[in-house]
Amino acid sequence: EVQLMESGGGLVQPGESLRLSCTGSGFAFDDGAIGWFRQAPGKEREVVSCIGMSDGHTAYTQSVKGRFTISSDNAKNTISLQMNSLKPEDTAVYYCHALIPGSHWGQGTQVTVSS
User: Fold this and answer.
1) How many CB atoms lie within 10 A of CB 50?
2) Distances (CA, A) of 49 to 21, 64, 114
3) C-alpha separations of 8 from 42, 44, 57, 90 in Å
4) Using CA atoms in the order 32, 73, 96, 60, what is the torsion angle rounded to 10 degrees?
5) What span, in angstroms and rounded, lies between the C-alpha atoms of 55 and 88?
6) pLDDT at 101
7) What digits encode the pLDDT tens for the residues 41-89?
8) Which one of 40, 53, 95, 103 has the largest count of C-beta atoms within 10 Å of its C-beta?
């Protein structure tokens, strides 16, 4: 059974940093893509960033480029999202997603950016 477990969310002030992690089980980190989506209250879920598990290619939505960095440790079946210079508009539930194939979601972790 494929499982994705997120950690690292919390409450921070604007300009601060957080690091999210997602550990996968039930599949190998050697093919497909894995990444992060987020959903703010009243808004649709949107992709934030993803990484190819075989080639390490990364992609980011425009609003987080230069502030967020996605990385993968395939030996530990873990990806991380380093989020710097956080803004109130980054407030959302962040979901780990794997396309391996088949679409799999984690339970989500809350990120709140507020002064």
Assistant:
1) 21
2) 13, 8, 22
3) 23, 22, 23, 15
4) -80
5) 33
6) 81
7) 999 999 999 999 989 999 999 999 999 999 999 899 999 999 999 999 9
8) 53
Q: Are 96 and 106 in contact (CB under 8 A)?
A: yes
Could you tell me which residues come within 8 angstroms of residue 109 by beta carbon, excluding any fewer than 6 positions away?
6, 7, 8, 9, 20, 93, 94
User: Which amino acid, residue 84?
Assistant: N
Question: What local confidence, expressed as pLDDT, does residue 33 receive?
Answer: 94
Residues of the chain by 3-state class (helix, strand, coil), percent to 5: 10, 55, 40
Q: Are 68 and 74 in contact (CB under 8 A)?
A: no
Adjacency order of strands within the sheet including 18-25: 3-7, 18-25, 78-83, 68-73
pLDDT digits (tens, 9 = 90+) for 102-112: 999 999 999 99
The pLDDT of residue 94 is 98
